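Holo prediction — magnesium ion.
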Amino acid sequence: MANAYINTSLPDTADRMLFAVPKKGRLYDQCLGLLNSIGIEFNRKPRHDIALVSNMPIALVFLPAADIAAYVAKGNIDLGITGLDIIRESQTENDVAELIRLGFGKCKLQVQAPAANQTLKSAEDLVGKRIVTSFINLTKQRFAQLEGVDDPEKIKTQVRFVSGSVEAACGLGLADGIVDLVESGDTMRAAGLHAIDTILDTESVLITNQHPRFPKLAQVIQQRVEGILTARKFVLCQYNIARSSLESACLITPGRKAPTVTSLEQEGWVAVSVMVEKKLIGDKMDALTELGATDILVLDIANARA
Ligand SMILES: Nc1ncnc2c1ncn2[C@@H]1O[C@H](COP(=O)(O)OP(=O)(O)OP(=O)(O)O)[C@@H](O)[C@H]1O
Ligand SMILES: O=P(O)(O)OC[C@H]1O[C@H](OP(=O)(O)OP(=O)(O)O)[C@H](O)[C@@H]1O
Ligand SMILES: [Mg+2]
């Protein structure tokens, strides 16, 4: 008789690199977009937290963002995407290797207090008072600094854990201040709070175990992600310029290494093709126009490799 405890609906992940991504929340959509961009193909069945990648020896594991750093640190998971805030809070920074900062999930971990309370203007004003947070370790470390205490467990400030809706704590009379993530500031302002200290600037990171089981495959993923981030950051700019102005044009658009210059059929003119940071492209086009460049084209880059 078959063993009744073997769950045959669980996929076989043996010999696959386990890659953890947040199962929901703020990072979920961006992570799925990134996986798609780097060519990872998978089919996640409803309610299933493991999905086999069809075109690479990888299994995706969908986990709460807050747990991913600890799993990677312990080696249960080989590679993962989570927030820097979570790595620091779970005190795993020495046990995971940070491969790439991903440029999304950007926010700040801030100490916040009721805006109407004139006596709470800086984090020092909350020393000895009640703080509610989901980030108890980072909060205790910050208040240990403020109190001049070596051991964060010996601070006099009372730090209490809640798992969500932290911003409600002051209004409910449960706390004098909170420590929580702030991006636009809308949540904080809607709760009548304002920031009085920043503990950490955070964003999403690709992390691996310090002793990865599949170093080659982890490196392939890292290179692909780097390619996508470069492609998102740069555009390809093409223009024609008189050869006599080429030197000045190259100063405006030096490129990542150097511009590609090809001769045009028209005597005394060249065509330039060069990568330009997206956020600078408007200024660069203005400067090139002023220099006499013509037919300036800007093209999106789908993918890149150094
Ligand atoms: N407002 C935000 N803007 C940008 N990044 C954020 C924001 N809130 C959280 N993050 C980042 O996303 C990570 C996961 O937070 P998220 O809120 O998605 O998890 P969660 O609270 O477990 O999920 P949920 O809010 O769906 O219950 C955080 O640790 C942080 O790095
Ligand atoms: O500055 P803002 O743009 O308003 O973003 C900040 C809010 O985002 C996160 O909460 P989330 O929406 O994930 O809800 P949660 O508190 O249930 O985790 C965070 O905990 C803040 O409450
Ligand atoms: Mg949240």
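READOUT: The pocket of magnesium ion (ligand 3) is lined by residues 25-26 (CB under 6 Å).
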